[in-house]
Amino acid sequence: MVNHSSNGMFVEGARVERVAVARPVSVMLGSASSGELVQLAPGGRPEAAAPQPVAVVGQTTVARPPTAVHAIDQLVVTIGRGPDNDVVLNDLLVSRRHAMLRRSGSQWELVDNNSANGTYVNGTRISRALLGPSDIVGIGHQLLHLSGDRLVEYVDTGDISYEAANLRVVTNKGSKKSKVLLADVSFALPQRSLLAVVGPSGAGKSTLLGALTGFRPATSGSVRYDDRDLYDNYAELRHRIGFVPQDDILHTPLTVRRALNYAARLRFPHDVSAAERNQRIQEVLTELGLSTQADQRIDSLSGGQRKRTSVALELLTKPSLLFLDEPTSGLDPGYEKSVMQTLRSLADDGRSVVVVTHNIAHLNMCDRLLILAPGGRLAYFGPPQQALSYFHCTDFADLFTLLERDTTTDWTARFYASPLHAAVTAHPAPNPAHPTSAHHQSPGPTKRAGPIRHLVPALPGRHRRRPPILGVPAGPAAAAEPVRPRRTRQRRTLTGQSHRRTLNPTLPTAGTADHRRRTDGLRGLHPRNRQRTSHLPPRTRHRPIRQRLPSLQTRRPDRTNHHPRTHPRIPGDAVPASPR
């Protein structure tokens, strides 16, 4: 027995999506307490059903009836959205002439026609590729599979499975400062479900959301979208995932219709006509109840209407999986309920919806509730109606307080050992130890570069730390060291050689012939970036400044020689008589 209703069906108080009638079972329809009771009993052995077409891609299996089967009996088969193609795909993400199949000997070659959203073979975007018997072609929301002289088409209608297995996020992995943000979270989301993710502040809700969407992949573990690895096929599957951030990204001076029109022009191929865009925009406005506000400015909308407009931007491309981060944040209680009712209807219409929220007043609208404990540990996954009784709490405020204060209880082990875990999922409890199998691990994040202080002696002088500004102490050790003038790449001075000599004693001593050859290049600098030295005698011209001016730290420097706005003369020019 499979549930297709919005109010659900319940077995022993738990909402379920399907019931295997292997023994007599009681099912409540509509409500766990006041619904209609139905008694089911196993009947006779049914006749064997005809096998459904199955497309296989390595370890990926798409087990659903095909949408269409196209005969390919010519040498060239065109694929696209336009009605003049041999294979017509009614999808606005597909270009008018998207790709073509060409017979190459005994094989078929797939060629992409510079499409807007790309052509994918086994999750990899291609420009041209030879197709084998087990290859799957992804174009828009369609999967295509060659079966002899037929092209079998499967359409992603939203009835997809979604599973997370052993998701683990670790920062600074391998160092002493490593920290676990998410600890081996696993769950399976039924089709057309609304999942709420809740937990105390800092429990890792945003980290989990990033791992589930693929925007910030987990350090280890896997996410499977319709039995396909999301991380490995992210380039193709990202078009089927919608994400609504907490802060609305809307141009408030625009009307709702114009904002949707701009978004449609950015996301759809350039050959989509204005009539096609307007038709899709009107469908989204009707679905979200925004038809009345279509020509109203966004800055004049209520909070709930503005949030629904943000959702409308994502629904333009018909995503099968929709994620929302705090959609009810800052809304009045009435608008909070309105937004949650909208999400409930979106799930009932054929999508899986995942929402991270602090709103606990309307969790009963959700099919599943996932509670995270501090440290990113899974504490509960199941029907929201049973969460409080599972933790022996009267309300969610007490529940969150319990999770924050009780740091000794292993909430994950407690949940996996409970009968509730076996009731809501068919997957075994994950190994509490960190998985080491390469099959379960995805590449970790790029290691962050550490400090390079230990490399300073080997770096050229221009990459080392600059000396402190003249007259400004640089720290506790400033009193023991002579104050040196600032030297930057734009203002190179002869006195900077003393600093280089301190870091690298192998450099030539100031005043020698080798040093003068190194400083000859200073003549080509702009006068503002060159210090005046032509008034000094030849023997002292290239000496360090602290040798020429012994009392530099006790008296104010000469503004004529050190002020950056002064235009000094080029060394070697005639020096006018001093006014003194």
CATH first level of the domain at 183-426: Alpha Beta
User: Can you say what the CATH homologous superfamily of the domain at 183-426 is?
Assistant: P-loop containing nucleotide triphosphate hydrolases
State the secondary-structure class.
Answer: alpha+beta
Topology-level CATH name of the domain at 183-426? Rossmann fold
Low-confidence stretches: 45-62, 427-484, 486-508, 517-525, 550-555, 559-571
Q: What is the rounded Rg?
A: 34 Å
Number of helices: 14
Largest sheet: 6 strands, antiparallel
Helix % is: 10-25%
* Strand residue content: 15-25%
Q: Determine the mean pLDDT.
A: 77
How would you write the strand order of the largest sheet?
Answer: 7-17-16-15-12-13
Shape: globular
CATH architecture of the domain at 183-426: 3-Layer(aba) Sandwich
**Counted beta strands:** 27
Give the termini separation.
106 Å
Characterize the structure shown.
With 580 residues, the chain is an alpha+beta fold. Among the domains are: 9-40, no CATH class; 68-155, Tumour Suppressor Smad4 (Sandwich); 183-426, Rossmann fold (3-Layer(aba) Sandwich), CATH 3.40.50. The strands form six sheets. A six-stranded antiparallel beta sheet has the order 7-17-16-15-12-13, with no helix packed on it. A six-stranded mixed beta sheet has the order 23-24-25-20-26-27, with helices on both faces. A five-stranded mixed beta sheet has the order 9-8-10-11-14, with no helix packed on it. A hairpin with a 6-residue loop joins strand 3 and strand 4 (36-40). The chain is globular and about 70 Å long.
